[in-house]
Design brief:
The structure is a homodimer. Chain A is an alpha/beta fold. In chain A, 32% of the residues lie in helices and 23% in strands. Chain A contains eight helices and 14 strands. The first copy, chain A, has a six-stranded mixed beta sheet with strand order 1-2-4-3-5-6, sandwiched between helices. In chain A, strands 9-8-7-12-10-11 form a six-stranded mixed beta sheet. Chain A is globular and about 55 Å long. Chain A starts with 10 loop residues before the first helix and ends with a strand. Chains A and B meet through helix 1, helix 6, helix 7, strand 11 and strand 14 of A and helix 1, helix 6, helix 7, strand 11 and strand 14 of B. Chains A, B: Pfam families: Dak1. Chains A, B: One of its GO terms (cellular component) is cytosol.
Chain lengths: 333, 333
């Protein structure tokens, strides 16, 4: 196992310390329990949004803390849900009196621990809502979920709900926007290589030299099938088909296309994927009007990618375009 | 070889097409010969800046084309210098009448081909200057260079010279700023794994399961030594020592610290590297006042990182902070 780490026990804390030091203009980190909040948190009168989950998916979620997106993020141990304590602490730290929205990826541990934290926060008089993201069409139930998994579409929920909160929408409205984005986004991924959880020290699964896993989860959970490696365009078609069929997307739709790297795949390949995905959508009359390409929801050093397609309307487009200033997404301000 | 590609011959063209489609608000691409320019190029009366080199280092250079940075970029084949033709075409396409600066990484082929293109452009009445970057302290001469290699420090040259051009500096002044940044930045890298050039199909070098290469080049060229894998903090110290000693940097200096991923290393590890690099500099009285962490000058899917340290003054800091709007770097506008 070759990793740029010191002690596996300290991966999350050391990485968090580096992140907070490199981005001290945007965020501050607290330790024991660990969480990240906007440097200027709380914002009085604004709905606050936090998200969280196991570490190893960076820049998700701490990389999205800042103006126009998240107010806070709660990183658990690698691929492990954060406990209620830091979720509660982050909720308290960001509350500006207008309520707090929890954006939670659908994994059993995450959902449970965010619920417990929400109950504790409510007992202290903080109004909390939750939106559970479940955009992964690969499998119905999985190792760690009842129902579909929450994957890279979560980034789009966080950006668009964050913009709604930033413009002053109230808690009901921000929650409704987050639900709407989750309802209109679908994702699916593929792995060319496994990843290694530092404290485990060996791959959580193996793939033969000529094999890839279609429908991979962001923790290396099994997907739909293992197949022989194919040309990029063929892989794109395998992933995009189930995404388009699910809602279904239809001719005339305007969409945001996210090509998300899993961590170990270079940008030069992600753009090859983007090219064909946009072509395939265009051939079906689906117009890509907004795009995002890069590593946004990763699985440590896994090689692979996921596609997410979000159906846009004027409101979602305007919120997507709104200024954002975070470590991993910035524009317009 | 598992890569998300179709035919190895088409990697650069397909990736370029995907890049240009995903970022059509910022850039346009031309083919045969291949180059990328700002969507609004040329900008009348503004000094234009182009850079280029072999592909496989994305987002370098096309990812830095846009407001406040590069006017154009010329991607060659993977790890292969672009020929004079596309360099000349890009130079013509961006010339707004105030001259064109070529920012060239110090590799023999790049330097020669940019010189030839500059001569051809001059014959057409375009005033061209060149700055050759050579920030890599690892080796004095290498496989492909006389003198030091140009590596990730090039990004800092491009950003800061780009800001000078955007504020209206003339060709002499922009050239002087680029020279100054190159003179004040030093870099060094390390590889944990090799990378595979698509048309070669196999790694250009091999490393044992417990070995790393200190001083690696961005094409996998040999560095200073191969050692056994060490904890991240020890590796950081090995890389940072020669950087600090080279200029040398001294107590009281304010610096920009760039932790650059080589392509296959996850962000969670890059922040562990950042944390200790900033600590080591602080212990020597060198204050990190600006930071950049991410994949900016890559070597395909290589695992590893480089550190770059740039000595700042008020002018360079102001130019660094100036608005920039490119695919890979954005803020403040």
């Amino acid at each position: 196992m070759k990793k740029l780490i010191n002690d596996p026990k300290n991966v999350v804390n050391e990485s968090l310390a580096g992140f907070a030091a490199a981005h001290s203009d945007l965020v501050r980190a607290e330790y024991d329990p660990n969480y990240v909040v906007r440097a200027d948190a709380p914002t009085a009168g604004k709905v606050a949004i936090i998200s969280g989950g196991g570490s190893g998916h960076e820049p998700l979620h701490a990389g999205f803390v800042g103006y126009g997106m998240l107010d806070g993020a709660v990183p658990g141990a690698v691929f492990t849900s954060p406990t209620p304590d830091p979720i509660l602490a982050a909720t308290q730290a960001v509350d500006g009196g207008a309520g707090v929205l929890h954006i939670v990826k659908n994994y059993t541990g995450d959902v449970l621990n965010f619920e417990t934290a929400a109950d504790l926060a409510a007992a202290e008089g903080i109004e909390v809502r939750a939106v559970v993201t479940n955009d992964d069409v690969a499998v119905k139930d999985s190792l760690y979920t009842a129902g579909r998994r929450g994957v890279a579409g979560t980034v789009l929920v966080e950006k668009i709900a964050g913009a709604a909160a930033q413009r002053g929408d109230d808690l009901d409205a921000v929650t409704a926007i987050a639900e709407k984005v989750n309802a209109q986004v679908r994702s699916m991924g593929v792995a060319l290589s496994p990843c290694i959880v530092p404290h485990a020290g060996e791959p959580s699964f193996t793939l033969a030299e000529d094999e890839i896993e279609i429908g991979i989860g962001i923790h290396g959970e099994p997907g739909r099938e293992r197949i022989k490696l194919e040309p990029a365009d063929a892989i794109v078609e395998r992933i995009l088909g189930p995404i388009v069929e699910d809602i279904p997307f239809a001719s005339g739709d305007k969409v945001l296309l996210l090509v998300n790297g899993m961590g170990g795949t270079p940008l030069v390949e992600l753009f090859i994927v983007y090219r064909h995905a946009a072509e395939v959508l265009a051939a079906q009359g689906i117009e890509v009007t907004r795009s995002l390409v890069g590593n946004y929801t990763t699985a440590l050093e896994m090689q692979g990618f996921s596609l997410s397609v979000l159906k846009l309307d004027d409101e979602l487009t305007e919120l997507w375009d709104a200024p954002v200033q975070t470590a991993a997404l910035r524009w317009g301000r």
